[in-house]
Amino acid sequence: MRRLRACLGAAAAVGLAAAGTTALVAGSASGATSALGNRWYAAAPYLMPLDNDPPDPAAIMDATGLKAFQLAFVLAPNGGGCSPTWGGTAAVSSDTAVQSVVNTIRAKGGDVSVSIGGYGGTKLGQVCSDAAATAAAYQQVITKYGLHAIDFDLEEPEYENTAAIKNEIGAAKILQQNNPGLYVSVTTAGTADGTGWFGKQMLLEAKSQGFTPNNFSIMPFDGGFNGAASQTGALTNFNQILQSTFGWDQATAYAHEGFSGMNGRSDTGEFFTQTDFQTVLDYATGHNMDRFTFWSLNRDRQCTPADNGGRTSGTCSSVAQNSWDFAKYSVKFAGVTPPSSTPTPTPTPPGTGCKPAWSSTAVYTAGNEVSYNNHNWKAKWWTQNETPVASDWGVWQDEGAC
After folding, report:
1. Confidence (pTM)
2. Which helix (H) or strand (E) holds 274?
3. How confident is the model at residue 168 (pLDDT cuts 50, 70, 90)?
4. In the 8-state DSSP scheme, what is residue 210?
5. 8 Å CB contact between 217 and 228
6. What CA–CA distance (Å, rounded) separates 133 from 82?
7. Cis peptide before 296 (omega within 30 of 0)
8. Where are the alpha helices (DSSP H) in 128-214?
9. Which amino acids are annotated catalytic?
10. What is the pLDDT of residue 340?
11. Which of 5, 135, 161, 244 is deepest in the core (most CB within 10 A)?
């Protein structure tokens, strides 16, 4: 849809809007204070501050000990132009709503990173004339909010645009140079092989420009994944891609690798529970990975019982949970023990019992349910002799394990 060991200096710099100049110290008019340690920026879950029923960040901080938030998403204006907006509609230059969220978080000792891009919408790299112009637009965001961290979420449809990716990677390099200590993550789509062709082309562009961010993160969901084992397998494969692309050894590649998951039910009907998050967290910390984040805090709460598991929502997870259960895994990645709370309810995913077995000769119409390979499936439209398999465009919708 939509992420460290060393601490940033207390006088972390924030660049001026001109792409070639370094600039101001912590304590700007935007309310910035001294930076958190890099580990916190690496653990910041995504939060949409203006959409998807935004939760109160102060309440999340109190309940979990979380300190860092990844605010999403900065895009080009819907009407065109090379200036930053929230979601294509709210100009950063005149923003007060997101600034209020930032101020609330900082007043409690936390901080924010801002994510640019995401899935869909028009990205600044697509419309700005070159890397310098793209960087100047993002510099406005850094200066406005006194940022110590920024995330480049490069995915559909932008990462299929060679010129746009060249602008984004070039802009990231300029911002990194002009804002000493700036924590920079680059997030892209994940596949079972690590990342796809366009993700690999993005890495090659970074190599050609001599750009190395704090991490390259993949999103191992919405691609036929099934629980934590498939995700850790993708992370292992992505590590090998980083090694072969940049000439790094395994440890160096892991030190520049990140995970960006999706809590609960994904867009394609995959399920990732608290147990899955713990498994991936153990893998990330065990391999000294650089980032562990997820989409999103807006979804880190239980749906109403009638909806649990039956849909993918932007405002709840569709799995059994206490509010902010998934945020606690980010807190653990940052090296902090979350406050104790009531036990998480035992997950009771939909379709615990298997539906009638799929038959290659039967005719199925929209809404018919079957079981195949220990998963329940629902037909989206008329079908016959089409094997159930997870696919964005396929006839079958995966309803989870049975």
Report:
1. 0.79
2. helix 274-286
3. very high
4. T
5. no
6. 8
7. yes
8. 131-145, 162-178, 197-209
9. 155
10. 82
11. 135
